[in-house]
Design goal:
This protein has 231 residues and is an alpha+beta fold. It folds into 2 domains: 7-84, Roll (SH3 type barrels); 90-230, Cysteine proteinases (Cathepsin B, Chain A, Alpha-Beta Complex), CATH 3.90.70. It is built from 5 helices and 13 strands. The chain has helices spanning 102-117, 123-129, 144-151, 162-170, 214-223; strands at residues 7-16, 26-27, 39-40, 50-58, 61-68, 75-79, 88-90, 155-156, 175-180, 186-194, 198-203, 208-213, 228-230. A hairpin with a 2-residue loop joins β4 (50-58) and β5. The longest helix has 16 residues, at 102-117. It is elongated and about 60 Å long. This is Peptidase C39-like domain-containing protein.
Amino acid sequence: MKSNTIASEKTPVFYVKLKKSAIDAWYLPDLKMKPLAKRKIPKELVKREFKIDSIAFFKKHVWYHFETMTTDQSKGWIHYKLFRRNYCRLDVVPIKREQECFLDEDLAAIRMVFQYYGAPVSYHQLINQINHPIDLHFKPNDLFEIFVNETGSFEDLTKKTFRRITHQLLRCHPVIMWISLLNGDQCPIVLIGFNHRTFFYNDPRNGNFNLISRVHLNRMWKKAGSFAISY
């Protein structure tokens, strides 16, 4: 492929932030424009989230297509190295469990992941494919076949490091993790992002978006057996 050829692809929507050192960062409204057409990113946008919906390979570099979440909605292409590696938030739509049982919590978490991947399944479609007691949570191996069928891959992240977990999130792959609650019950959560101190997740029990410290999450995860999966 020639260096001046643009190869771009749509990606599931995710959000990132610029590095602190990128205060004088610039972007191109269109990759086909000459470098002289570059524009400086306004200072008021430097600390905000950038919505990313496409990735391109151009002149041996990786570029992110962004849209700012502001009234002017600036759009364009920024070199990916200008964004932090310690911040990412995937645009995973929360889904609440249908009934109050362990199985439905797991099914809601699975549906969130499949929907973000681009293979949405309904509650009834999913439950018809799975024969599992309603009062028990899944184990990772129970979900190997359905993940491969729907997404083409399966990642068992059980007892892996947080570095491996964040790597999955940076690849735009949400992670289902089982944690232990204060009452001793276990429940799944869907990790959708992180910063240097905190993880972001969707809770299938109530369909809410939440934050949790790395220290607290690690304690709850280990207590539940350190089970986690992705694709």
